[in-house]
Automatic annotation (TrEMBL):
The organism's place on the tree of life at top rank: Bacteria
Protein name, as recorded: Sulfurtransferase
Presence of the UniProt keyword Disulfide bond in the record: no
GO molecular function, one term: thiosulfate-cyanide sulfurtransferase activity
UniProt cross-references to CDD domains, sorted A to Z: TST_Repeat_1
Domain Rhodanese: from-to ranges: 43-140, 200-282
Record's keyword annotation contains Transferase: yes
Keywords linked to the UniProt accession: Repeat, Transferase
Pfam family, one: Rhodanese
Organism: Neoroseomonas eburnea
Length: 286
């Protein structure tokens, strides 16, 4: 199965048995003083306009373990699988994901399903903006409650798809592994934008901003060209990170589209790494 679908392709599939369309949007913005990232549910926007029959899976409620100390930490595989099942995703489902925020959250939802071992999933090219731009039908009003899956999703975790701080520390001394920052070039250099506890980047990491990845519309050759520009060579294992693992999921998803196989998202990202002064960070060009 391909990893993306066009708006026209999805429109032709709407209403077919087994199809589940999920809106994974979360709204985020930096605080005015750039001290933290603020987030808000996209549920009101979903009620105002959505792809017909789609379901909103709000990560703020379902896919964030708030008992863990860093932002957007994944819950256990069992809890995550149960959340998807409650929103209609089961063993017999085919899933299409979209968001209304440029692709990061659709990719985060994709990567969570990949971590759970579920592969029948695609991302809508261009997200909700492309759907609307194509003049395709839009539904409004209070959405119906999601219908739980008849055969709930059973987690079969790909543990290698998620990295922790120990994995990143080991990678910094391993020439076969690249640690790649999906934040902006200014954040990578520590010269601007929101910093996560300390300015700059994980020492030795490279930079490919997720904002350059064009909401799943960039062809694989274009992704590979951006990767080459950032010094990300085929054959390397890549651990992607950002502030809280969301933009990093977009980077990992797109590298997967371009042919990279050994990929992981550092779940804690800088929200964990930056808190610990013993963990190496650096600023400046690089």
């Amino acid at each position: 199965m391909t990893l993306t679908v066009t708006p026209a392709g999805l429109a032709a599939e709407l209403g077919t048995p087994g199809l589940v369309v999920l809106d994974g949007s979360v709204f985020q913005r930096p605080a005015p003083d750039l001290s933290t990232m603020l987030q808000a549910s996209a549920r009101p926007a979903f009620a105002q306009a959505r792809i017909p029959g789609s379901v909103h899976l709000d990560a703020l409620d379902w896919l964030w373990d708030r008992a863990r100390p860093y932002r957007f930490a994944l819950p256990s595989p069992e809890v995550a699988a149960a959340a998807f099942a409650a929103h209609g995703v089961g063993e017999d489902s085919r899933v299409v994901l979209y968001d209304r925020v440029g692709g990061n959250w659709a990719a985060r939802t994709f990567w969570t399903l990949r971590w759970l071992g579920f592969d029948a999933v695609r991302v809508l090219e261009g997200g909700f903006a492309a759907w609307q731009g194509a003049g395709l039908p839009v539904e409004a009003g209070p959405p119906a409650p999601p219908r739980p899956a008849a055969r709930p999703l059973a987690p079969r975790p790909r543990t290698a798809a998620i990295a922790d701080r120990a994995d990143v520390l080991a990678a910094l001394g391993d020439p076969a592994v690249l640690v790649v920052n999906a934040l902006s070039s200014e954040q990578h250099a520590g010269t601007g934008g929101l910093s996560y506890h300390r300015p700059g980047r994980i020492a030795g990491s490279r930079n490919l901003p997720a904002t350059r990845l064009a909401d799943a519309t960039l062809p694989p050759a274009g992704i590979a060209a951006l990767a080459a520009e950032a010094g990300i060579a085929p054959g390397h294992r890549v651990i992607a990170y950002c502030g809280g693992g969301i933009a990093a999921s977009n980077l990992a998803f797109n590298l997967l589209r371009a042919g990279w196989a050994e990929l992981a998202v550092y779940d804690g990202s800088l929200d964990e790494w930056g808190r610990d002064p013993s963990l190496p960070m650096e600023t400046g060009a690089g």
